[in-house]
Amino acid sequence: MAAPGVLVRLALLLLPLLLVCHRVSGFYVPGVAPRNFHQNNLVEIKAVKLTSSRTQLPYEYYSLPFCHPVNITYKSENLGEVLRGDRIVNTPFQVFMNSKKKCEVLCEVTLKTEESKLMAERIQEEYYVHLIADNLPVATRLEFYSNHEEEEKNKEKDVQFEHGYRLGFMDSSKFYLHNHLSFILYYHREETEENQEPTFRVVRFEVIPQSIKMADLKADKKGACTLPEAANSAPQEIDPSKENKLLFSYSVRWEESDIKWASRWDTYLTMSDVQIHWFSIINSVVVVFFLSGILSMIIIRTLRKDIANYNKEDDIEDTMEESGWKLVHGDVFRPPQYPMILSSLLGSGIQLFCMILIVIFVAMLGMLSPSSRGALMTTACFLFMFMGVFGGFSAGRLYRTLKGHRWKKGAFCTAMLYPGVVFGICFILNCFIWGKHSTGAVPFPTMVALLCMWFGISLPLVYLGYYFGFRKQPYDNPVRTNQIPRQIPEQRWYMNRFVGILMAGILPFGAMFIELFFIFSAIWENQFYYLFGFLFLVFIILVVSCSQISIVMVYFQLCAEDYRWWWRTFLVSGGSAFYVLIYAIFYFVNKLDIVEFIPSLLYFGYTALMVLSFWLLTGTIGFYAAYMFVRKIYAAVKID
Fold first, then answer.
1. How far is CA 303 from its chain centroid?
2. CA nearest to 180, candidates 69, 102, 239, 98
3. Is 490 among the domain residues?
4. Is 601 left (phi over 0), alpha (psi -120 to 50) or beta?
5. Are residue 371 and residue 465 in the same domain, yes or no?
6. 557 in helix, strand or coil?
7. DSSP structure class, residue 96
8. Would you say the C-alpha torsion 518, 521, 523, 527 has a positive or negative sign?
9. What predicted TM-score, i.e. pTM, was given to this entire model?
10. Which residues, given as ranges, of the chain have pLDDT below 50?
11. What's the total number of domains in the chain?
């Protein structure tokens, strides 16, 4: 599965940080050391998986009848690689450093009727094959001529790459397989002392897939073959209704490159225009600071006037009747309904917030680069477990502030509510993926390991944090709560909860929707997401915008003499999650070519988890901003 989990982000503050993270791939990644090769050293070509954006179901390489080595050996993978559906395995390709091969037969295969049908299905579903050499993924070069005249070879070209190579193609309802691979590997010659043998490092891995009919390859008994000229060759057709006999072959070409090992991922990570990220950040900065400035100025001026009037009235014996937000001072801190559930959701929100903040910051520093395969997902999973202590502490203290008494039940609810929903949805989706025999299905041992992490790490830490949070002094509210709740006047239409969600969600979503497009592309179209510097700034923008809009909404609500702000602030602050859901539906309809039931179920299932997580995150940010605001303004007025 593409990178899991999956939370949308925001922020803006330190411009120098942006410059640091703009080129995240230009340094050594901790734990990923360069490997030096001597002349004719074996460079292993390994297979990762087969993927398709149409089905969202990855398969392992040998799920199709490709050529097998003598011994098939799978690499032991980390948690993130397993969750992504990677199954890294050796292949029979024999590639040696700086040693060319014109054309060599890999094997001869006779596809049975069932295998032919399966191969044709995978071609129709537009599957890509993903290989790696020295941990570098294979890429297919796409060339675009700047003057749109391909025949003028001397004109400037814009080169782009796509990850992996297409399994085959269709033409007039016929299926053709890419059975010949022309590997182009680039190496960088390392500086050595005079008498030492030169060493090389692999810095790029490209492939040109070709479909060549078996007879046109002209293979001899020694395994050598001859590539025909493009004009005289016919493609290798796969007839799904019968057996097919074909040859798999490959050629190898080495080219020297000036690219250094530390920058070798630059080619793969510049597959989309960075300019639009700059536009996104500048747009978000201008919108958020402009609106935030206006809103802050209005609220501060209004609040100063309100507080001055309230305090002035208190100095006069014959005060006029109170009005506005001061009128509900005896009820504003009245505990809401279902305080245990509210505190549990906010605790999970704090847990998510800490995890996302640390992951994005560490990734911005380059420690979770795509070259560290699966590291992002692994780090996110473990961090979420360990952040349970902070989530439990905040939930326990808030629960006691809301006059709760059953702390053990509250701790259990915090540890189980959100993770339980996530696990339940993932388990149901996993059953469907198991039925398709896809590597996207989490293996049973991995699922047991995740359950052990949940009950062995997260649950005890949540209980520990909840215990200390519940024992700590509750938040000090500046006014006392009346015994009898006052009646709430009839509210105007624009104070409706759903209207508030729509209004409050526009600003945070508008600040981050451009970055959301790149995140969705990385998840659903098998792209690399690497601009974590931009993501960190967008995350800051999200925090600022959610806090501002939450304060504005709670101020309007209190001015309307409605003191039931606890749940409402949490729900309204997460209003941008509604827009994320709408955008996800738009993306599904306009950007993806998914028509089958199970891929659609997977998309909306995992999208629902993303929306739920984003709602918890933004709702928690807005709630605590509003809570601090409410305590501040009621502490500033004199209450009899």
1. 40
2. 102
3. no
4. alpha
5. yes
6. helix
7. B
8. negative
9. 0.82
10. 1-31, 144-156, 271, 315-322
11. 3
